[in-house]
Amino acid sequence: KSTRIPRLESYPPFWIGLVALVMAAVVVAALLIARTAGFGYTSYHAEFAQAAQLRVGDNVSVAGISVGEVKSVALAGDRVVVALRVRDDVRLGAQTRAAIKLTTLLGSRYVELRPRGEEPLQDKLIRLTYTEVPYDLQSLLADSTSTFEQVDTGRLASALTVLSEQLDGLP
After folding, report:
1. Cα 70 to Cα 171: distance, rounded to the nearest angstrom
2. How far apart are alpha carbons 60 and 46 in whole angstroms?
3. Interacting residues of 82 by C-beta distance below 8 A, sequence separation 6+
4. Using 50, 70 and 90 to split pLDDT, how confident is the model at 164?
5. Which helix (H) or strand (E) holds 70?
């Protein structure tokens, strides 16, 4: 006795469409669950002197290639700890460096990772001594104070007066 599988055309189109729709929904749901659960990614943390306006969802890159995203930014005493989700195929060694960089002039940020070192990264944590921020307000203020102390205000006033006289009458 031969058992033949009925041809697809013998089924009502409504049921074929319903089965296809359910299968597509199952595939999409499985992909979303896999992405949300973090399959294919490893969690790391990096300590920074300040957050520098870094936000959850900002990009994480290595050599200009996107390899993950920022998962959280939290204050931890005198530093900021940033949770990073990085693809499993990116190997971060013990001397890995992380820097918060500016993406655009409008203020978008990203974390640039520079993997280094043969030994694995201890505790999946990039320590403060291996991180950089785009600016450090404390050191900027200290530098500007010492710079302005060296300015000869008398000569500066004289130069501005001469410039003002030279520009007098120009539109």
Report:
1. 52
2. 12
3. 45, 46, 47, 48, 51, 54, 70, 72, 73, 74, 111
4. confident
5. strand 65-76
Residue 122: CA atoms inside 13 Å, Cβ hemisphere, count? 4
Beta-strand relationship, 97-102 and 109-114: antiparallel
Q: Is the dihedral of CA 85, 91, 96, 101 positive or negative?
A: negative
Given the structure tokens 């940033």, which residue do they identify? 82
Q: Is the pTM for the entire model greater than 0.70?
A: no
Q: What is the mean pLDDT of the chain?
A: 84
- Residue 137 has what pLDDT? 57
Q: What is the pLDDT of residues 111-163, one digit of tens each?
A: 999 999 989 888 999 999 999 888 655 566 666 666 666 777 788 788 788 77
Q: 8 is written with which tokens?
A: 């697809």
